[in-house]
C-alpha cells in the first residue's frame, strides 16, 4: 500500500487529484483507515505490530500529502498566479438612494425653490394632532377610513391616545403651534393605515404635506404654487385640473389632477382612460383649524396640500405595484 500510495501521490497534479488521493487512503472509508478499524478483530499478538506499522504509515502518508501540496502550490504560484495588472478591475457594490427617498427629495426640492422649508415630524402621533385638531372628532367617518394602529399607551392624556400617524397633516398643527405666520413648509413622513394590501394599497407609505399660512393667502396662491410644483416634477407642459373634494381640515377642499403625460390627455392605461391623473388633495386651511392653534382666522389664511410619495414615484417611473417599494428586492431597487 505504501508503494502504490506514494507512486499515485507523485502523479497527482492538482487540488482535486490530491483530494481524491486523500479520500482513497486516508478518508473515512479509505484503505488505510479500513486497516486501522480492523485491528480489533486481529489476534492480540498481531494487533500490536500491525497497529504500529499502520500508524507509522498514516503519519508518513499525511506528511507526504502535505509535501506534495506545497510542491504543487510553489510550482504554480510564481507563474500562473502572478498578478495580472492588465485585467479589468473588480467593481465594488455601489449603494444608492431608495426611490422613495429620491422622490421625496425631488418633491421637497421643487418646493424649496419656491421658499418652502422642509420639516419632519414623529411617526408616533397623538390622537389630538392626527385627528381632533384637524377637525376630525371622535366618530367622524374619516377616522374609519384610516382606522389604524393604536398604541397601548399606559395612560391616555389630554392629547388622547397615541397611534402611528395616518397622514402627514398633523405636522400642520405642530408647525402652527410652534411658530407664527408666515409659514411655508413641506413635511415628508411615513404614514400607516389599516389597509388590505394590493397593487395600489400599502399599510405603510409616505406622504408629503404642504402648508403656507400668512396674511392674504388666497386660493389663487394655492393653484399657482401647486401648478408650478406639477410642472417641475412632471414636465413644463403639464396642465392641471382642480375639482371639489372634501377633507375636514380644509374649506374649500380640492383634488388636483395633471393631464396625462403619457398620452397627452387622449386616454391610456396610466390615466385609466380619463386623460387626467389625480396627484394630491388640497384646500384652504379651515378656519376652525386656524382658531384651534390660536390664530386669528380673520387675519390669517393659508392653504394645505398632501400627496402620496409612492404614487408620484409610480407615475414617474411607470411602476405598477406599490408593494415593490417596501419589499427590499434589489432587482427592483437597483434600477433607480
Ligand atoms: N391628509 C390628506 C389625506 O391623507 C391629504 C390632504 C392634505 C388633503 C392636505 C388636503 C390638504 O388624504
Give descriptors for this structure.
336 residues; alpha+beta; BirA Bifunctional Protein, domain 2; two-stranded antiparallel ribbon; 12 helices; 39% helix; binds phenylalanine
3D structure, described in words:
The protein has 336 residues and is α+β, with helices and mostly antiparallel strands. The chain has two domains: 2-82; 99-333, 2-Layer Sandwich (BirA Bifunctional Protein, domain 2). Helices cover 39% and strands 19% of the residues. The protein has twelve helices and nine strands. The chain has helices at residues 2-11, 15-26, 31-38, 44-76, 99-112, 127-130, 141-146, 170-178, 219-234, 287-292, 309-317, 330-333, and strands at residues 117-118, 124-126, 162-164, 183-192, 204-215, 240-244, 250-259, 276-285, 300-308. The strands form two sheets. A seven-stranded mixed β-sheet has the order 1-4-5-9-8-7-6, with helices on both faces. A hairpin with a 5-residue loop joins strand 6 and strand 7. It is elongated. It starts with a helix and ends with a helix. Residues 167, 169, 247, 250, 281-283, 304-306 line the site of phenylalanine.
Amino acid at each position: 500500500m505504501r508503494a502504490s500510495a506514494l507512486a499515485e501521490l507523485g502523479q497527482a497534479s492538482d487540488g482535486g487529484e490530491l483530494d481524491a488521493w486523500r479520500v482513497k487512503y486516508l478518508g473515512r472509508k479509505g484503505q488505510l483507515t479500513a486497516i486501522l478499524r480492523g485491528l480489533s478483530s486481529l489476534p492480540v499478538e498481531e494487533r500490536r505490530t500491525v497497529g504500529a506499522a499502520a500508524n507509522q504509515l498514516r503519519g508518513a502518508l499525511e506528511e507526504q500529502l502535505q509535501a506534495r501540496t506545497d510542491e504543487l502550490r510553489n510550482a504554480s504560484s510564481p507563474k500562473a498566479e502572478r498578478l495580472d495588472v492588465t485585467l479589468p478591475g473588480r467593481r465594488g457594490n455601489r449603494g444608492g438612494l431608495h426611490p422613495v427617498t429620491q422622490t421625496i427629495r425631488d418633491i421637497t426640492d421643487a418646493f424649496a425653490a419656491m421658499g418652502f422649508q422642509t420639516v419632519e415630524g414623529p411617526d408616533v402621533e397623538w390622537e389630538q394632532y392626527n385627528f381632533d385638531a384637524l377637525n376630525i372628532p371622535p366618530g367622524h367617518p374619516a377616522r374609519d377610513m384610516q382606522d389604524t394602529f393604536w398604541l397601548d399607551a399606559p395612560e391616555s392624556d389630554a392629547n388622547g391616545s397615541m397611534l402611528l400617524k395616518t397622514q402627514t397633516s398633523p405636522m400642520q398643527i405642530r408647525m402652527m403651534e410652534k411658530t407664527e405666520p408666515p409659514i411655508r413648509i413641506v413635511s415628508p413622513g411615513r404614514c400607516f393605515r389599516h389597509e388590505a394590501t394590493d397593487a395600489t394599497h400599502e399599510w405603510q407609505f409616505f406622504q408629503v404635506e404642504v402648508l403656507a399660512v400668512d396674511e392674504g393667502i388666497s386660493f389663487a396662491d394655492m393653484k399657482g404654487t401647486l401648478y408650478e410644483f406639477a410642472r417641475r416634477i412632471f414636465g413644463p407642459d403639464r396642465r392641471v385640473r382642480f375639482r371639489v373634494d372634501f377633507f375636514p381640515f380644509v374649506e374649500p377642499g380640492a383634488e388636483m389632477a395633471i393631464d396625462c403625460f403619457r398620452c397627452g390627455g387622449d386616454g391610456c392605461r396610466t390615466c385609466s382612460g380619463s386623460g387626467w391623473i389625480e396627484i394630491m388633495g388640497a384646500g384652504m386651511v379651515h378656519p376652525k383649524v386656524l382658531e384651534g392653534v390660536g390664530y386669528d382666522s380673520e387675519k390669517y389664511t393659508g392653504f394645505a396640500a398632501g400627496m402620496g410619495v409612492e404614487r408620484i414615484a409610480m407615475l414617474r417611473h411607470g411602476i405598477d405595484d406599490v408593494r415593490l417599494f417596501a419589499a427590499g428586492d434589489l432587482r427592483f431597487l437597483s434600477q433607480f
